[in-house]
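Shipment paperwork, digital attachment
Item: protein structure file
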Amino acid sequence: MKKTFNIKTLGCKVNQYESEAIEELFKKRGFEKKEENADIYVINTCTVTNMSDRKSRQTISKARKENKDAVIAVIGCYSQVKADEVKKIDGVDIILGSRNKEEVVDLCENFIKNNEKMEDVEEFSIGEAIEDLEISKQADMTRAYIKIQDGCNMYCSYCLIPYARGNIASRDLVSIIDEAKRLRDNGYKEIVLTGIHVASYGKDFDLDISLIDVIEHIAKIDGIERIRLSSMEPRHIDRGFLQRMKDTKKACDHFHLSLQSGSDSILQSMNRKYDTDLYEKTINLIREYYPYAAITTDIIVGFPGETDEDFEKTLNFVDKIQFSKIHVFKYSNRKGTVASKMKNQVSGVVKKERSKLLIEKSKYYTDKFLDNMLNQPIKVLFESKNDDGYIKGYTTNYIRVKREYNPNLSNKIIDVICNRRENEELVCE
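Attachment content:
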């Protein structure tokens, strides 16, 4: 009888990529995936907020309740920075950090054979190299993620990620291209380049290579029709980057540029490496090259010392930029960060009210962005599933589109014109 496994993933797209790569490793060893009552549970954790820690602990406990005899392996960012805390959770058998996740299959097999439990757990050291994980198939059959780098050297004052993921480590370009070709061979038409800080790609190499080189090389692969980027910072985008990007004719006009605050004094306290002037100039440059670009962002409300005036500056800056979507976060005090020791912490009541106002403003500009795309010719990469009589897909600027279900449209890029909107989806006939 085959041994079974299940992987529970919390947090970012990088974690999701790594979990799918680990799933492939288990299957290559003859394990079978099982959603409930599995023999092995791997919990890929997140630690970006206090809530993330809590959800990680809850997921571990739930897995143990599903099968009291299962092997429980906890990996990722939470166990990287709080290994001793994870060790105290009842029922945890194996603990790994964030840069050695590929070892989890060996450790689980050893545990099953020899009942080898990890007894002495200290804080994991983070190596310089990126782990050896890759994927040939993913859950989404039109869009595939490729992790091209790990780690971050920015050390924003509110963030634990550099401590959880270490300094930047870039993946070998040949390995990236090989994975892109395998994904192409398995039918994927869109590649999403992801990482903890993708714009830093290549900065740890002696060679003169950067993110735009990765984009250009993947664009040369026949069968790959779209290349999409994950989150970036404005200071990494200039005219040369955008020109080369547009020349590929495959790069998507969707830019997620984390803002975090529209107040320069708060940006400085956050240790962000730009100001609102640079941010605005970058957005204007993007729109020069891509007039219909989706500009999405993250904003933190209630950062220590954020006054009513600072928040008003953020609201005004949002009006100036008119983002297509804003992901709003209430500041989470993370022990071990510089910001956790700052004075003038903002109350939960104020954070909640500011979050509500910003979410309302975000919805207004999302609606405006979507309405502007009505009756415009757009290209949609349709997915395969029948969703209540509709087939759905995404435009290059990441708008969800649906039309009457037709299996012949599956995994094809089709020119459409949408004449109405339902919430945040466009509908075409």
